[in-house]
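[User]
If only I could read backbone structure tokens as easily as an amino acid sequence. I have put the entry right below:
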Amino acid sequence: MGALDGKVAVITGAGGREHALLFAAEGAAVVVNDRGGSNAGEGDDVGPAQQTVDDIVAAGGRAVVNGNDISSWNGAKELVEQAISEFGALDAVVNNAGILRDGFIAGLSESDWDSVIAVHLKGHFNVLRHAAEYWKAQSKAGAQPTAAVVNTASASGTTLPNAGQVNYGAAKAAIAAMTLVAADELGRYGVRANAIAPIARTRLTLATPGMGAMIAAEHEALEEGEFDAFSPANISPLVAYLASDACTITGKVFAVQGGAISELAGWHDVKTIETEGPWVIDDIAARLP
């Protein structure tokens, strides 16, 4: 018996395979969403997503392909509707789709900002929003869901902000915050929401200046049988657990890389200065580090 037996999951960016393959192996029916564009989000090729579906079906699992652009309100709505029409329900959303258009602030174009925010932040929200509407309706009708959302944040938006990734980092930080709000709002409908901040060998990380070269070098140096700390397969078990009924966790963000999982805490006070009356600039200058 799998950890996700009987579940129906939507996984965006699933041409990347590992999440979708594990979910299916654990018993879930999967809607494999991937537009199949370049790292920058250009072009369309449903081939990688279809290959993932074919591999799942060949192994005896259930899956269908979806090539919608999740940065589109209607594209995300149709994605959610497809899960319900094909498999009769929706129990889990894994928001994983993303693109990169790196650049330093002084030279970043408006389109590069807008595109990254649209795919990452708006794309996460669009799928979440339409799924939440379904779960709310189910709850109001008396069929209390046991559903889960797993969003994809990043070290770039949490613990390791990268120069040259202002758009990506801002989107990922916002996704982490959105996850906490979703957990607070949707718990009443039987929905849990968590986020991961993964580090693994993917098209996007390999294209990240500095990080990509390091990850590629680590892979080249691997000895046969040695643990591959940057394999994306290391990330998927946490995602599957967070989506399963065995998990009661909600409102958390987890960093995950290789054999390590860390719970992250958000902004918090580290030092407070106070005054008895109105602030004076010179007083602030003298006391604020």
Observations:
- The chain has one domain: 8-287.
- The mean pLDDT is 91.
- Residues 255 and 261 are 6 Å apart (CA to CA).
